[in-house]
């Protein structure tokens, strides 16, 4: 039996959120960290959804095209019906970095002629709403909802600031100039199928769906699944895409998310996020020994990384929880160094720590940091273990390395999680 859906996550944190969304909906799902071999697919067993974690969100256009080249061949190999380009729920992207336009154009060019494209504009569970094409997002886990171009963090993002709230205009700058909008009043009509058909016929770059609340996702899902039975379908959006489609493809009853148990041993968390949300979580992490890393030295000096890894491993061997941060408490704004170089260095640090001191549970904060940190580990897949907080999944690693296989990892984007998130990794969420 073929899986119904393949999703590609444009960063690892979002990819694990989609994994959690699928698992909580009763779908058999596994997230691969690179295109899987036949043996790995056989080891995974029957799946409803297959994920592929990547880092296109931080890439320039040519690098994105190379990164996405294996996705459609895998889609064909699996025989799936829906190809989901999983993007950040805030749609932060730019023509030069993480272009959603480049991603969709690259994927669509490799799909059969006439493949339709849908863009799901919101994820209400995370406080992301799209109304008449304009995106709104909550600030933090319980903050005020702002239009995205007035959001206190996303409007000033150091790499991809959101200066335009109308997603049609935002995506037009990335090459998607022929988009249509299916607004929420039309979506709530007696039969939105005819609206979709008419719009899709005249909008080769795709149809953007408004999402005001979760009830809209329940209307969108059956419509998209009906289209996917007619022909393969390309869908862009956050984890709300899988949330919308899950009832149509679920093979098991909706199951409550398993509670996260207290950690079995010391926990190591690497925080490489500039977000005020992460800063609040670091401040509230009272169970940890906190280490403030010198970011420029970490990014450029192998000896400094090795010394930091040795120090962290020594504390962990003493049974102490360790939170290593690349952003000092008084620091604000972009750091004067290459963000990708710092994220790569964070991945190398994590790998060195785990090689010196295997752990049952780790956490990584920051989208780029999470993506590159996991790529530095000898793991090939992730399965869902539980929800640490909305938008943050605890995952079990699959690896041929016995010291890593079965270890748990939580990956979080800068905007995700409650203030006590890191404490939950230690004490559990029950």
TrEMBL record:
Coiled coil: none annotated. Residues 269-422 form the Four-carbon acid sugar kinase nucleotide binding domain. GO terms for molecular function: ATP binding; kinase activity. It comes from the Bacteria. The keyword Nucleotide-binding applies. Residues 5-245 form the Four-carbon acid sugar kinase N-terminal domain. Keywords: ATP-binding, Carbohydrate metabolism, Kinase, Nucleotide-binding, Transferase. InterPro entries: 4-carb_acid_sugar_kinase_N, 4-carb_acid_sugar_kinase_N_sf, NBD_C, NBD_C_sf. The keyword ATP-binding applies. Pfam families: NBD_C (PF17042), SBD_N (PF07005). Transmembrane segments: none annotated. Belongs to the four-carbon acid sugar kinase family. This is Uncharacterized protein YgbK (DUF1537 family).
